[in-house]
Amino acid sequence: MKKNGYDIKRWVKSNYKGLTIVMIMFVASLAINAYIGFGPSSSLFSYFSQSPSSNNIKQNVQTNSKVDPFAIRNSFYLNITMDGKHMTIPSQIGIEQPLWHNHTLDKYGAPGMTMQGMTMPSMAPIYTNDKSGLIKIGSIVIRNYTLGDFFNIWGFDLNGKTVNASVNGKAISDFKSHILKDKEQIDLSISANK
Fold first, then answer.
1. How far out from the chain centre does Cα 107 lie?
2. What's domain 72-113+122-192's architecture?
3. CA atoms of 78 and 155, how far apart (whole Å)
4. CA nearest to 61, candidates 142, 179, 146, 172
5. What is the 3 state secondary structure string of 157-189?
6. Which of 56, 147, 152 is nearest to 105 (CA)?
7. What is the DSSP letter of 193?
8. How far apart, in whole angstroms, are the C-alpha atoms of residue 145 and residue 181?
């Protein structure tokens, strides 16, 4: 096979050993980089190598030293009905002060930073960007977060109210202790006790 007057097959045959050595070195460098990036000292490796614990909320607390400040990026949908009426979940929970009441988890959220001459504010590890009901988790450590954590950050008081909760269509009894998982649908039906 000739291309631009040059016989490619002949060139590959005559340089076969050199190409083989280059390929072996390339694969070896990929393996070394993969081990360094995801080796025993990395948060990702440690997270997946630990045995799960169903009741340990503070398990897996580790710092992440990667360029991306987040060790966890998850999201879930939350739908709330209050006394039978759909309730819109506000945008900017955990970002703007009027919607960021509890600061006990702040050390796990994104720190404020300057990007392209603009100062980005810090954020709680559980926050909203819009009014769609999509709740995001952006945590600089690998740890479990609960629905109760979200309501504490928001400052939404559920005391004195009856709450029926379901996750992906299955009823749950203790919604405040429910550990949040990526891509789940949480529905809350709240009624005021009168």
1. 15
2. Roll (3.10)
3. 16
4. 142
5. CCCCEEEEEEECCEEECCHHHCECCCCCEEEEE
6. 152
7. -
8. 9
**What are the tokens at 191?**
């009624």
User: Is the distance from CB of 138 to CB of 150 less than 8 angstroms?
Assistant: no
Look-up: residue for tokens 């709330």?
Answer: 80
Q: How far apart are CA 127 and CA 99, in angstroms?
A: 9
- Single pTM value for the model: 0.64
The pLDDT of 8-29, averaged and rounded, is 64
* DSSP characters over 93-129: TTTSGGG----TTGGGSPPPEEETTEEEPP--SEE-S
User: What pLDDT digit, counting tens, does each position of 160-184 carry?
Assistant: 899 999 999 999 999 999 999 999 9
Rg of the chain, C-alpha, whole Å:
25
Domain ranges of the chain: 2-38, 72-113+122-192
